[in-house]
Design a protein that fits this description.
The complex is a heterodimer of chains A (about 110) and B (about 325). Chain A has one domain. Helix content of chain A is about 35%, strand content about 10%. Chain A contains three helices and five strands. Chain B folds into two domains: about 190 residues, Rossmann fold, CATH 3.40.50.700; about 120 residues, Cytochrome-c3 Hydrogenase, Chain A, domain 2 (Irregular), CATH 4.10.480.10. Helix content of chain B is about 25%, strand content about 15%. In chain B, strand 5 and strand 6 form a beta hairpin. Chain B is elongated, with a radius of gyration of 21 Å. The chains are: A alpha+beta (about 110), B alpha/beta (about 325).
Amino acid sequence: MSALANAQDEAETREDIRAYLTEGLKTEVFPRADTHERVLEVTARLRPAAGDLRAKLVIGGFTLHAVEAGEIEQSCETCMYFLVHRRFCELPELALPVEPEWSCRLWRI
Amino acid sequence: MANLLWLQGGACSGNTMSFLNAEEPSACDLVTDFGINILWHPSLGLELGENLQKMLKALTSGALPLDIFVFEGTVVNAPNGTGEWNRFAGRPMRDWVTDLCKVANFVVAIGDCATWGGIPATAPNPSDSQGLQFLKRSHGGYLGKDFKSKAGLPVINVPGCPAHPDWITQIVVAVATGRGGDLALDEFQRPKTFFTSFTQTGCTRNMHFAYKVSATEFGQRKGCLFYDLGCRGPMTHSPCNRILWNRQSSKTRAGMPCLGCTEPEFPFFDLAPGTVFKTQTVMGVPKDMPAGVDKTGYIKLTAAAKAASPRWAEQDIFVV
């Protein structure tokens, strides 16, 4: 797939995510994956959901705004897995186009 | 001519293999160029049985001078403090260690097991293993914290799993050529010349560390191994990226996270499932920070570096 086609594809997926969450898709925002064990638990649940966008959003606890936890504002923008220029989450279990102000419970820095 | 004796306690022979692969100088150079007389070594020694016992007794009695005593592996104390699980030349190895350390001018511990216990001393430590002068971070070990060899130095610790071949031979040469007293040791009795900088010093992934781009899977050439894959390079004291392995590479250059094997806590987290090759986090922040960095500073630095990262940092610049 060319870079342009890939970017278009990602833009469409980004809009799908925005639509799902705007329409009220309930996601597991809490508890945050605040321990290593919790991270393993959430990523283990995500693996079988690789091709299911809605399941990924629910299990990952996606929101369209930054969530504060542990006195840290956990936005995609500051997350280790966020590719700034591509606006993409490269955590293998998610691998989703995102926006800087979004958030999920697998945030880490 | 300096007499060197090398014995092995609770060990896998990894440091022996490393020693035999040394290049600068090589094990042969020690003999031919630096006047070191290798009395006995597990892979090179010729004496067996009674002849070996006779030689060891000549050393412990002082009839044969012992300039350098090199010990590889842990001191095994099980069962019940007798050391009988590791017998050598007719008696527990720990008893030989006690007697040989009394007569040696210099005592050198090679590898993690001899320095701080390493893998054999990992909980629950069934062999009741100790390093020569440390047990993990606790000073003391088998010989006690006040031990000094005849030359007035504590045990010289050359850790690693294994120690790099040239760290071993260069320290042995320094001692054998009368420069042992010039060795500056750190708080864990490691020669500062090797163990002041970090594994990260010279790492080819440093630009990805700077721009906070993480390697998320093994085999990726792009990305830093610290953020997700448990690399301990930023907090491990070793010259692994300055004195390269096989003269050409290192763990991190080959895409393998540093395990921190020159630090007393190795293996970290007692090898609990899920802790190896995975960065441990609390509320999304690494549990172990790069040396000298606090949590607040780390968060600020990471956010700023991430925001400023150039486009190329996200791409695999090694594939064209």
